[in-house]
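Exercise 7. Given the encoded structure of a 486-residue chain, write a plausible sequence.
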């Protein structure tokens, strides 16, 4: 790189792209740019507040006690590194294909194939977790208690699928209001919780306060349980990368994305760590369970008429929001892959609303399998799919950091110019994050049970990816040649 270009790169503003990428992704064409700044900001915060907090925190509090707050804080830091790395790539070249498009540029079609299908594994299983959570929440109300869990799961999937197929603008509006509801509910809960702690108002005969934690200790069951719940905590942060996919359907991403991504860190600290600390002070950790949202548990035991029902409605909204996001993002990722030949052709189709409905329907199809899982093992469905989703998340985050590392390496050779909005402390941040992800996979295996079974299946997942690549590589190369000749 010349001295002049280095100087120019150094003078770029935080929201200015570093350079025009020579890479063109066919999957970026055809989308409307209907997502506004308010949509992206709320998608970013909504992605960081999902089913993993509203439902999963109850069982994890019971398993690890107050130390769960530490697990959320540690995982939150690494989640921020991942989304910050993705943000740097977005400023370099916004793409609806997101990290799949970046993997194609920096790691070739094989890398894009692996990144895309790992992301699909993530969200197809997360969709099952979300409809399972929605059905579990609905059973809170007496009018739904006699309806089988699989029926409620099917209804949830049908409603969200219909909404997602209309247009990206409609998706943006839904996510905006879903996020508003989640944030407002958490703020209200935290204000109530702080009031209860300060005034020491009894909750179910128990006096809340720091003594609730000090009586049992931060690690009442030891440090190992805290380490073992980390894989579930990683699942709670699974949607933070969603704003990267949405960047391809917004105007001026170079202005909007840095602000949205930077806000994730303090939101994580406030909503995740803060709410878990409050939950630990309001009731002993033994009062919580995986069968009910911990927020609903507190409101139910508080005895305020209708309060538990309102909170349950909020957490139901969170599950539907997560499902909506999963269908949205996989539709865009699969279209990027389809137009390069590494996904079925029908997943590249778009409707009149400029929505890639083929990929959305494929993900919804796996949701139908989740309906069957809810029929066969309703009590274990959430835990089973959570572990498989965690493998997909680890793979997706790992691919993002590998792309970021490859991007950094090319910048050192002068082949690309990094934007001023950068992942701090590169390349050490990428390396440490990749080691953390490997450590989480080891903890899943170490914990035994469903987690060990899931990790044991990783070689089969790898074999399926290799086999899948050999099936599509001919079409991928043929389409690549066609693009070069065009």
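Solution.
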């Amino acid at each position: 790189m010349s001295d002049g270009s280095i100087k120019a790169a150094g003078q770029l503003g935080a929201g200015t792209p570093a350079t025009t990428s020579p890479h063109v992704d066919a999957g970026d064409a055809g989308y409307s740019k209907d997502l506004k700044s308010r949509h992206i900001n709320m998608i970013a915060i909504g992605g960081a507040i999902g089913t993993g907090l509203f439902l999963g925190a109850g069982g994890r509090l019971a398993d690890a006690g107050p130390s769960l707050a530490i697990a959320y804080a540690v995982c939150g830091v690494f989640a921020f590194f991942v989304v910050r790395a993705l943000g740097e790539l977005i400023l370099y070249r916004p793409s609806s294909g997101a990290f799949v498009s970046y993997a194609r540029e920096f790691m070739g079609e094989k890398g894009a194939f692996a990144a895309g299908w790992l992301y699909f594994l993530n969200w197809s299983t997360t969709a099952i977790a979300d409809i399972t959570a929605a059905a579990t929440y609905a059973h809170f109300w007496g009018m739904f208690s006699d309806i089988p869990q699989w029926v409620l799961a099917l209804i949830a999937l049908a409603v969200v699928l219909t909404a997602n197929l209309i247009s990206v603008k409609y998706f943006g509006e839904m996510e905006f209001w879903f996020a508003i509801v989640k944030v407002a509910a958490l703020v209200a809960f935290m204000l109530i919780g702080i009031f209860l702690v300060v005034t020491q108002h009894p909750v179910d005969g128990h006096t809340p306060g720091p003594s609730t934690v000090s009586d049992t200790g931060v690690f009442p069951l030891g440090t190992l349980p805290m380490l073992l719940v980390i894989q579930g905590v990683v699942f709670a942060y699974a949607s933070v990368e969603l704003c990267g996919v949405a960047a391809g359907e917004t105007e001026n991403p170079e202005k909007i994305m840095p602000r949205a991504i930077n806000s994730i860190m303090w939101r994580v600290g406030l909503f995740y760590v803060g709410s878990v600390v409050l939950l630990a002070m309001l009731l002993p950790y033994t009062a919580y369970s995986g069968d009910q949202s911990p927020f609903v548990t507190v409101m139910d035991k508080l005895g305020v008429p209708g309060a538990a029902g309102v909170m349950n409605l909020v957490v139901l909204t969170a599950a539907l929001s997560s499902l909506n996001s999963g269908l949205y993002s996989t539709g865009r990722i699969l279209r990027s892959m389809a137009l390069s030949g590494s996904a079925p052709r029908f997943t590249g189709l778009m409707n009149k609303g400029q929505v890639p409905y083929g990929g959305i329907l494929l993900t919804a199809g796996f949701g139908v399998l989740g309906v069957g899982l809810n029929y066969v093992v309703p009590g274990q469905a959430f835990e089973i799919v959570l572990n498989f989703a965690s493998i997909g998340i680890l793979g997706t985050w790992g691919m993002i950091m590998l792309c970021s590392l490859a991007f950094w390496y090319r910048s050192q050779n002068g082949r690309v110019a990094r934007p001023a909005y950068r992942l701090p402390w590169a390349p050490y941040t990428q390396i440490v994050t990749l080691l953390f992800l490997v450590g989480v996979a080891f903890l899943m295996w170490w914990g035994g049970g469903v987690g060990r079974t899931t990790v044991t299946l990783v070689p089969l997942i790898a074999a399926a990816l290799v086999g899948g690549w050999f099936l599509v590589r001919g079409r991928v190369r043929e389409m690549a040649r066609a693009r070069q000749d065009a």
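Remark. The CA atoms of residues 75 and 136 lie 26 Å apart. Students should compare their own answers with the one above.
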